[in-house]
Amino acid sequence: MKKVYKIADITIGIEYHYKTYLDHNIESYLDDDTSNVKHNIQVVLSDHIDLPIGKTNQTKNPYVILESHQRTIYALTKNGEVKECITHDSDFKHVEIKMNPKFIRNPAEMEYALIGLIFMDIALKNGYISLHASAIEYQGEAILFSAPSQTGKSTHARYWMSTFDNIRLINDDKPLIKVDQKDIYVYGSPFSGKSKLNQNIKVPLKAIVFIKQGLTNRVETLCESVKIKELFKNMMRPDDEDIWNQTIRQLNVIIERIPMYSIEATNDQSSVHAIHKVIYNQETKNEN
To answer: InterPro entries attached here (predicted)?
Structure first.
């Protein structure tokens, strides 16, 4: 059954089948107003998916058929059978995700991943930037810890949560950023990796910290050129030229207004004090 959700400021209808990742997660984004639905995602389970007809624009699996009014992305098994197929129009008003569960090792995880992937495309089209990061709310503002997978962004966020009171985890994997007329905000979404750690909240952005593993807690304030490099490395990038132009305009504002830092962080709470001292220009009470 399709339900309507408001994620950030995007009203979207989603019909999914598996409860593993979205149940006890997406409910806080439920919306009663069905009149403003701009996008619809429907997941269809089938024991056979026809091979899409059309010329693909790449030679490796998964394949893409790009036409003027719609895009089709599909993945094949080693035997040439279709195991997943996504079709959507240019505005993502109607998205159909077909899955053949018998060819997928973990259908629930794949459904969650594909819905999340499409949602991030929709978010980009609606003016949001998706950064690979763990985002916390601290003193009413958002701090993002960004890094490649398995580098320590979630661990660093948890160190902050165990060091200070009244911290909320906004999103533990892909928080959304949007430039408003006067401010820059971070939004939660139900697509936060397998952890389900997210909040349906909107918080002004204070700072972005790019984390590297290290032996000392050396913090560096980033210049504009390095900010661009780190953002490009850790963000989801659109493949549509118009959306890219829109995204670049937002990135320029973020780079101009938001302080960004890098830290070669140790795997302990001392990294929290090092970052806090630089961002807020003050010692923490618990610092030795």
So the answer is: P-loop_NTPase
The distance from CA 240 to its chain's CA centroid, rounded to whole angstroms, is 18
- Residue 147 tokens read as 């890094």
Beta-strand pair 176-179/129-130: antiparallel
Cα separation values, 138 from 166, 169, 201, 240, 241, Å: 7, 9, 13, 35, 36
pLDDT in tens, 141-170: 999 999 888 778 999 999 999 999 999 999
Rounded-to-integer distance, Cα 259 and Cα 15, Å: 39
Looking at the structure, tell me whether residues 169 and 201 fall in a common domain.
yes
Amino acid at 167: I
Contacts of 34 (CB under 8 A, 6+ apart): 4, 13
Cα radius of gyration (the chain): 20
Domain-embedded: residue 187: yes
Distance (Å, rounded) from C-alpha 277 to C-alpha 282?
5
- One domain, residues 141 and 121: no
Residue where one domain finishes, among candidates 125, 150, 171: 125
* CA–CA–CA angle 123, 192, 64 (5° rounding): 50
Please answer whether residues 276 and 214 qualify as being in contact, where contact means their C-beta atoms are separated by less than 8 angstroms: no
Asked if residue 287 is part of any domain, the answer here is no
Report the number of distinct structural domains present in the chain: 2
Q: Is residue 285 part of a domain?
A: no
pLDDT tens-digit series, residues 100-139 = 999 999 999 999 999 999 999 999 999 999 999 999 999 9
Take residue 81 and report the two structure tokens written for it: 């059978």
Looking at the whole model, is its pTM more than 0.90? yes
Q: Which domain holds residue 228?
A: 130-280
